[in-house]
Amino acid sequence: MRKEDGMVLVPYESVLAVGDFVIVEKRNMTY
Q1: What does the pLDDT read at residue 13?
Q2: Region class of 21: left (phi > 0), else alpha (psi between -120 and 50), else beta
Q3: 13-29: string of b/e by CB count within 10 Å (b at 16+)?
Q4: What is the pLDDT of residues 1-31, one digit of tens each?
Q5: For the whole model, what pTM was predicted?
Q6: What is the rounded radius of gyration, in angstroms, for the C-alpha atoms of the chain?
Q7: Who's near 1: CB < 8 A, 6+ residues apart?
């Protein structure tokens, strides 16, 4: 595994986590 892959993977997972959080927040606001 290259260093570049590790540096890209962490922000990518963070983006997914933030995306899931935003989706949940939107559901709480609509319902």
Answers
A1: 81
A2: alpha
A3: eeeeeeeeeeeeeeeee
A4: 566 666 666 777 888 888 898 888 888 887 6
A5: 0.43
A6: 14
A7: none
